[in-house]
Amino acid sequence: MALRYTQRLLQTQVPFLTRGYPLLVTKEKGEDVAHTKSALQKKWTGVDIPSAQYGGRHAVTMLPGGGIGPELMHYIREIFRFVGAPVDFEVIEIDPSTEGNDDLDYAITSIKRNGVAIKGNIETKSQGLDEVSRNVAIRNELDLYVNVLHCRSYPGIPSRHKNIDVVLIRQNTDGEYAMLEHESVRGVVESMKVVTVENAERVARYAFEYARQNNRKKVTTIHKANIMKLSDGLFLEVAKNVHKEYPEIEHNNMIIDNTCMQLVSNPHQFDVMNMTNLYGTIVSNVICGLIGGAGLLSGANYGDHFAVFEPGTRNTGTAIAGKNIANPVAMINASADMLNHLGHKEHARVIYEATYETVVNDGIRTPDLGGTASSTDVVENILKILARKRVNWPQGQYRD
Ligand code: ATP
């Protein structure tokens, strides 16, 4: 499996591995390429989504994954049923202990067919070289080149800082996740970090376009170009070039180690952050930790044609599975992000609001947030709030 999925990665990336690239090589690509400006605008105006079928309903692939994934997906289905969200789930279990890739292939085919998925984290059981992460394989196969995390503080949740509001834009398919490692001679292992102009530019353009569309003021590119002069140097250089098209937005850059320190001491200096894959996972975990842990924030993975929604920190939570203590909020937020993406904005809004009200106003919180509520207490409270808001739903309209 490892060979097949890494080969495919290289096929798409090798032409871009050299330095001295032509400026903004991907800018003039075809109309269907979402990182061109017009296509990104289409995405944010909600045009570039799979069309609904069968009476306005969308089919969505659901990958529960391992650990707490299946119980969280059960809550999502319950909430969607309750609010009448026009979504039919195609549930695909991926068992990491089975031989071969049939389940993974089937999941990828399903997402290609439906265009959209919601997922938990799929465990990688073996440390063997043949075994690649199925999470990474899905992102690579679907070319989900950007991961977006909107990190906002929840009032009242104990945390070191208040009012954090940072958007993290992470390159999601190459960098240190190329899964290209080998032992060159006995006792010497090499791991390839791949940075390509194409992907660095797509993610930088996404970050600047996001800033422009959402009235954000600054993009900070995170790197380690003082040490990784070619790879991170290229990532930074591409970001600086893309910035020239967005003169109204400030652009600065920061080294990853300093970024972690600055995040802990003064996170308010950040607005939109643009970074490679490994720095993205580190920074997202730091920010989620600052805001309240793994159970709150959602993350979205976008490519030109597909979108996959999941909890922001991508944890499996095996140790807390089946105990009714996992915080369901991150997965519920991910499901509302997905409804938003599909254009079901009213359904998304009521779910966001009921979840926020439960955690912030009603103080119904699981132990990871310092509360004593169970996962089902949280979900039941959300359903109770949703019931109050259902008054005018028979007409398909939500009114508060
Ligand atoms: P394991 O999957 O065996 O727990 P781990 O220690 O690597 O492995 P992760 O799954 O990476 O744990 O999760 C990191 C931490 O975040 C763990 O302490 C986990 O219990 C916690 N965590 C993850 N998701 C949630 C959640 N939804 N609610 C509460 N805690 C969570």
UniProtKB/TrEMBL annotation:
This protein's GO CC annotations: mitochondrion
Designated name of the protein: Isocitrate dehydrogenase (NAD) subunit gamma, mitochondrial
Domain Isopropylmalate dehydrogenase-like, first and last residues per copy: 59-382
Subcellular location field: Mitochondrion
Origin superkingdom: Eukaryota
Keywords: Mitochondrion, Transit peptide, Tricarboxylic acid cycle
Segments passing through the bilayer: none
Pfam families named in the record: Iso_dh (PF00180)
Keyword Nucleotide-binding: no
InterPro entries linked to this entry: Isocitrate_DH_NAD (IPR004434), IsoPropMal-DH-like_dom (IPR024084)
Family: Belongs to the isocitrate and isopropylmalate dehydrogenases family.
GO biological process, one term: isocitrate metabolic process
Gene: IDH3G
Main location: mitochondrion
